[in-house]
Every structure is written in C-alpha cells, then in structure tokens.
Amino acid sequence: MDDTELLEQVQMAGALDRVTAEGVMLATVVTLAERMSHQELGRLGARLPAELQGAVRAGSPSCQPFDADEFVRRVAERVRVEPQTVWTQVRAVLGTLEREVAEMEAVRVRLPREFDALMA
Predict the structure, then answer these.
(1) In CATH, what number does 3-119 get?
(2) Residue ranges per domain, the chain?
(3) What is the pTM of this model?
C-alpha cells in the first residue's frame, strides 16, 4: 500500500482532514515504535510507506512497556491535542493498519489486550 492510499484510508476511518491524518498517523507509528522493539516491528515497518518506515526506526531500540492510556497520551502530546480528542484518531490509524497491512496482526498479538480497544 502506498502512502497516499494509506493516508486516505485513515482520513476516511477517522473523518479527518489530510493534515490531521498525516500528523496523527506519524505520531501513532512513532509511539508504537517506542512501545515495541525494533525486532517486533521489523516486518511491519518494511510494509509501510517510506515516511512511516522512518518513524518505526525513530522509536526505541528496546520495548518501553507502557499501557494504552499512556500510548494515547504520548500521541496526544506529539500532535498537541487533548488525549480525549486523539483517542478516536489513534483508533483510525491502528484500525486502518490492521485492516490494510497483514503484518499488523503480529504486532497486535504482542500487545496487551487493553490495546484491543485502540485497534477496533
């Protein structure tokens, strides 16, 4: 999937404008890369558009085990909005990745069940 197609899918899923979708998509992938190890994200990263591959590499070399609320808080901080606002936007990104990129399933099974609500 190319970056334009993925971005359009996120825009539709979250009813977002292009700029908001781009920002939250990048922030979500960077935060996911902090939460998971590079090894765990390797296959997913290879399937993402170039800009998002860079976001995966920008994350932590080792896993930082934080919960779903902290995940949303970090994304919110990156895009400079309140966590309540960004929650549905994060769901749009992670849900789109799960639907459109098969390798996301391997990522999902490595996350605690509390993350399921973010990937609906």
Answers:
(1) 1.10.490.110
(2) 3-119
(3) 0.91
